[in-house]
Amino acid sequence: MWQYRPLTWFLLYLLGILIQTALLPQIFPIGYVPNVVVSVTVLIALYESPSRGMLAGLMGGLMQDVWAGRMIGLNAVTFALLGWGIGYLQSKIVRDPVFVPGLVAGMSQVLVVPFQWVLLLLAGYHFAWLSFVKPLPVWILFSMFFTPGLGGVLGFRSRRELEAGFSAMG
Amino acid sequence: MGGFFYRWRRPLITILAVMVLAVSLSYTAHVRGRVVELSNLVGTIVSPASSSLAFIGHQAGVGISTVGQLFTLQAQNRELKQKLLLYNSMKLELSEVLAANGRLRGMLGLQQTLSNWKLIPAGIIARNPDNWFSTLVIDRGSDNGIKPGMSVIVPQGVVGRIIAVSSTSSTVMLILDPNSGVGAMDTRSQAAGVLLGQDPITGMLKFQLFSHRPDILPGDAVVTSGFSQYYPKGLLLGQVISVSRVQFGLTEVAMVQPSVDFNRLQSVMVVLSHPQGTSAPPIFGGGNS
């Protein structure tokens, strides 16, 4: 199905980053713009194996890094690990279309910020930690609503559901 | 006998009725007042019923006409709603035009003030895709003569400088960015220093002063010093909010409120060239950019 194709991921990330850079800054003030790439990565990885989840995360993160043109690898590493983690997690949990994607996306926002903060610290950037605590609730809430919403619009389904659907039709 | 009456009953009844009517007419012509009284009496007796019926009839008429008007009202309501929508959109459009007008007036004022400078207007098309750095993308690139290092300004002050250029767009590093450093000085005391990026907690710019005991006070205006290779001298950066001593009391740091509202930026001016040795007068206020 189309949702499992890397070309689809690429198009989704492209659209996500466009929304994040051109549309959301009109709504959210500087420093509060939510990360749409997190939501797209969560959504893709929730229906993938850990390795494919990692591949998707790497693609999204790399695209974001290239787009930003500042530290290539910062988002690529973060989202590759996030994709792997969610791909691993999805095999252990019962997945529903609303609650689980929302919760996982919200938790991912909580994990991504300190992880990137450490990476930036290693790269020589001393950002004040408290500054990211302020926008974090906005990002968490946005991800918790946006991710299930996007999943609902795209109609993502697991491979098992798709196979069952096809066999029932046949 | 009975057969006679039965046989001529219809003409007889007719003649009788005509006679009764003739007598009645003749009689009532003379006793008119009593007839009126009789009429009044009848009217009094039947008036509750007549008024009730009249009321019901009136209400029924009103109801019927209301039902009839309902369709007209519906059409009118639809038309008025459309008009209201039109007026609302016109109002919105007007406020947008007013804002754009203010912005363009500010830009025009800036161009007139810096008449011997070569400026090019540009619109903002995107922001940076993460929250760690502060950049934005403008819709002018190398095709329009833009090169890395050029400063970007608005009537309210300095926005940042160009760090990357493509043929049709350019990336601007804002003075809020952690990598940004602008040579700055206090307009009152001429105390010089470097204006570093935004402090993430306070949202203010950090003004690291060079001298040991600089004369700098809250409320002072901070402008570009012209010492850096990127920014011309005299462009407004912000206003000093507080001054504190740091690093074991050796140097002083001032917190500066940026003069530009970066959340409301829509268009900017790129300084393509400016006469060497000239400085821009600091400009306060102006239209929203």
Helical/strand content category of chain B: alpha+beta
Residues in β-strands, percent of chain B: 25-35%
Mean pLDDT of chain A: 85
Q: Sheet with the most strands of chain A? A: none
Report on the structure:
The complex is a heterodimer of chains A (170) and B (289). Chain A is an all-alpha fold. In chain A, 72% of the residues lie in helices and 0% in strands. Chain A has one domain. The mean pLDDT of chain A is 85. Chain B is of the alpha+beta class and 289 residues long. Among the domains of chain B are: 1-41; 114-273, Beta Barrel (Thrombin, subunit H), CATH 2.40.10.340. The interface between A and B is medium-sized, with 28 and 21 residues.
Summarize this entry quickly.
The complex is a heterodimer of chains A (170) and B (289). Chain A is mainly alpha-helical and 170 residues long. Helices cover 72% and strands 0% of the residues of chain A.
Helices and strands in order, then pairings?
The complex is a heterodimer of chains A (170) and B (289).
Chain A (H helix, E strand, L loop, with lengths): L5 H22 L8 H10 L4 H19 L5 H17 L8 H24 L13 H19 L4 H11 L1
Chain B lengths: L1 H6 L1 H22 L1 H82 L4 E10 L7 E4 L12 E4 L2 E9 L4 E5 L6 E6 L5 E7 L6 E5 L11 E4 L11 E11 L4 E8 L8 E7 L16
Antiparallel strand pairs in B: 1-2, 1-12, 2-5, 3-4, 3-12, 4-5, 6-7, 6-9, 7-8, 8-11, 9-10, 10-11
Keywords:
A: 170 residues; mainly alpha; 72% helix; globular; B: Thrombin, subunit H; six-stranded antiparallel barrel; 3 helices; 28% strand; disordered C terminus
